[in-house]
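[job 0417] fold request received: O-antigen polysaccharide polymerase Wzy
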Amino acid sequence: MIDLQVKPEAVDTATASSLVSRALVELEGRIAVVLLSLLLTVLGSVILLSERQQAVALPALVILFAFFLFCVVLSSRVKSGIFGEVGFIFSGFTVAYSVIPALNFLILNFNFPPNFDALNFAVLNPQPEELGLHLWRHCLFAVTVMGAYLLARGGGTGAPPRPGPSPVSGWVVAAVVVMVSSCMIAVSLLSAPVDDYYGHYTRFDALSPMAKRFAFLCLILKGGGYYVALTLMFSDYRKFKFPIVLFVIFIVTYELSYSLGSRIETLSILLAVACLYHFNVAKIRFQQGLLYLGVLLVLFTAVEFYRAAEFDIHAALREFSERGLRIATEFGAVYYTSFHLYVERLNGILPERDWLILFNDFFTAVPFFEHTQFNSQYWYARNYFPDAVVPPQTMGPIADSAIWGGEGDLAVRGLVTGLGFGLLAHWALARREKFLANVAYVFLFATCVIALKYSLIYQVSQMFRTLAPALVVAYFMIRLQRAVQPESCRRRSPSG
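[job 0417] inference complete; emitting structure tokens
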């Protein structure tokens, strides 16, 4: 008698195989659509744009479509949503800091006013072909980062949001918030009066060495405390929903006023909130994520104009009415410096540099030192802006490659950055039930723009320097509460 029963294992295997095949077909279809769109857009640009405009438009378009293709492939691999992927956010920043300058060039039709960037760009009299060539360097960096991230990230979906809340003690959260507030007060008391944006970076110069180290310790505890407090509160979102809103408004307002318009801390806080919301509350979809990033772009631009008007709202509105809408010059920071240095490189007139600059980022994890002697940003300022109070421009992997190995060096930096982010994401998202991995990933996600304006090694060094002290404080607070209320804390405290 023939057995007509089908084994469950065979059915499961067949079903899985069918789902995989269907997913592959859908992925191939999406990739085909992206590539076809790229081809049509390139053909359209060739027809509609002049040869000068094409020199800039083509590499910018390739960067955009490489990003779209990256999103398609990444979304097929991770089911927790690509907005929670640090590779997506970092690649988005790379695209913005590449394509927005290109768009600005096209809007100006390559007629750069003398004060275009207030630095070394306009005086170089850049030609469209030179601008396009440098955009291809940006493209090289972007593509190597995206490809390496996909390779290292793998096909894991990342841990989904927890099925239920993991209550934390309000006492521990309150203690961390009090620590942050105390550090804010201490920093304000130790700070010298500051009248402008650049003075923000020299506010502790008049302090004695011991007082300056205490101020730096307060800054470290404050910065790390933001991420520890937010992660603790989001682990029980229902309980801390309204305190989260109040805390975020409080620290964002403080950072904008304290720094006189510096936006990096505010941006990092808002990205940390988005990351925690995505994984702990509700998945942020691709369209919602783009809208959120668009709002941040508008906020970035508004704060820059307000700061340029010396925080006079009437002057800012008058400037807007006279000159119209403009894109924040911040998005040209990576392009302008690296373009200038590649011009210097091609002309063989780069200033002398110390080989220790290559290793400076490893040492920045050591606290209480300013690490300026072998910092490439300070090297740039010493050679090109010797009278500047603080370095007026950033560097980053693209600019750093210009002073060392050129395009080959740049490709290696892109691969290292992509592999680093991919491996860190793979490790952290597989351990999201662990508090330490959770906080570390939120920090990397929220501050990933640092890897574009400095380096990934610098960002990881800052993570150790910033998070370690605050985590030690939080750990002892949790241990103290467990000693006082052992039974309740076993149910309440997050796992380590």
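[job 0417] notes: The first helix runs from residue 8 to 48. Residues 1-14, 157-161 have pLDDT under 50 and may be disordered.
[job 0417] exit 0
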